[in-house]
Design a protein that fits this description.
With 165 residues, the protein is α+β, with helices and mostly antiparallel strands. It contains six helices and five strands; from the N terminus they run H-E-H-E-H-E-H-E-E-H-H. Strands 2-3-1-4-5 form a five-stranded antiparallel β-sheet, sandwiched between helices. A hairpin with a 2-residue loop joins strand 4 and strand 5. 25% of the residues are buried.
Length: 165
């Protein structure tokens, strides 16, 4: 076996490990991005514990096929970057926020698809995932909903206790 073949085999194994360790993998087209734009994007992903990486499409296709996933074969064409995320929505949200903050990225940074929870998600699904708030925001909203009735009860009891007979 040649050294090149062994190196490619190691990269495929690395990709499989990253896919297995991630709750979501977002595939995005990155066309004509400047070094400054890529660096800023990588920093945003790093802050969210995501990893932005570029691999050869053939190696990623092989890794997905070895994992029994063949839906990405059509998306693995052209310039493709991969975002490995520790949760289901952070990568999609960061991509959407980056495009919203810098409209020049709208045609340069286009989501292709995602692999979330062991299932294929198309580009429209990636945009819907981006609209979902983060886990922390959802938990805060839930706590607020649980706290409101109790706070209202306390307010009402204080108002009754404060009334003069």
């Amino acid at each position: 076996m040649s050294a090149n073949f062994e190196a490619k085999k190691a990269v495929v194994e690395e990709i499989k490990e990253k896919i297995g360790a991630s709750k979501a993998v977002v595939l995005t087209k990155y066309d004509r991005l400047t070094v400054a734009e890529v660096t800023a994007l990588r920093n945003k992903f790093r802050d969210a514990s995501c990893e932005y990486k570029v691999y050869k499409n053939t190696l990623v296709r092989k890794a997905f096929n070895e994992l029994g996933v063949s839906e990405f074969d059509n998306d693995l064409n052209g310039t493709t970057a991969f975002v490995f995320c520790p949760d289901e929505t952070s990568g999609c949200s960061i991509l959407a926020k980056a495009v919203k903050e810098n409209p020049a990225l709208e045609e340069k940074l286009v989501p292709k698809s995602a692999y979330v929870g062991g299932a294929y998600v198309d580009a429209a699904g990636v945009k819907r995932l981006a609209a979902i708030p983060s886990r922390e925001v959802l938990l805060a909203k839930m706590v607020g909903c649980l706290k409101a009735p109790i706070a209202n009860l306390v307010y009402t009891l204080n108002a009754i206790a404060g009334q003069k007979s």
